Amino acid sequence: MDKKKQPRPKSNKIITKILKFFGIVIASCFVLSVGVVLLYKFVPVYWTPLMSIRRIEARHDDKKLNIKHEWKDYEHISYNLTEAVIVAEDDLFYKHNGFSKKGIERALKEKREKGEVKHGGSTISQQTAKNVFCTNHRNMFRKGMEAYFTVLIELMWSKDRIMEVYLNSIEMGDGVFGAEAASQEYFKHSAEKLSCTEACLIAACLPNPRKWSVKNPKNYVRQRQQTLITRCRKKAYAQKQESKN
Predict the structure, then answer these.
(1) Which positions ≥6 away from 217 have C-beta within 8 Å?
(2) pTM for this predicted structure
(3) 121 lies in which domain range?
(4) What CA–CA distance (Å, rounded) separates 37 from 145?
(5) Which CATH number belongs to the domain containing residue 150 in this structure?
(6) Any bridge partners for residue 173, and if so which?
(7) Is residue 33 part of a domain?
(8) So what's the pLDDT on residue 237?
(9) Using CA atoms, how far apart are residues 10 and 5, in angstroms rounded to an integer?
(10) Which of 5, 59, 88, 122 has a CB 3.0–4.6 Å from the CB of 203, allowing a cystine?
(11) How many domains in the chain?
């Protein structure tokens, strides 16, 4: 006579249902995140989580904040700004896969020697992932999400697309987001006409655009601007000499 199968304990059934539920949630989140990244490969990014956070912060402080932002296609943003932010933020942007060992080591060295990190260890790819898909909260979960979306955009977007979204979404002042808004706010002309000097002034403030002002730059910002101008010109000269050989 065949033995009857013993019914599974009720606790096992509950655990199975819970695991299945979490599996569905994780799979759905993965599909959704890939879908959003794929969408933003082609569609302009008109709003970011940080813009909402700044609005909420202003409301909490009983202040009125007007978000200034206007999308501009990459070809309508001066290459001077591209060069300036690469020199200032991530000089290996076109060579790495989203993460820079050199940048991380530099940030750790600054933290160890000066007690603070002024230039950061995040690449432009990481900053883009944070700006577009994450919040600005400093915790391990956000860093994990930032790393995850960095991998996705590096896999699914071109480097030029990453740069285009970065230049259009980066915070460049109080309520000022993106190259076009910054150019209009500070220099009264389009981002397409940004000079090397203007671009380097914007880039000089990027590590902390709410503390360092493009409108009223202090000595440190001016010094950093001059350093960036020098490095940009040296880079341009080196590229010119290389093209001759």
Answers:
(1) 201, 204, 205, 225
(2) 0.86
(3) 48-58+77-240
(4) 13
(5) 1.10.3810.10
(6) 176
(7) no
(8) 66
(9) 15
(10) 88
(11) 1
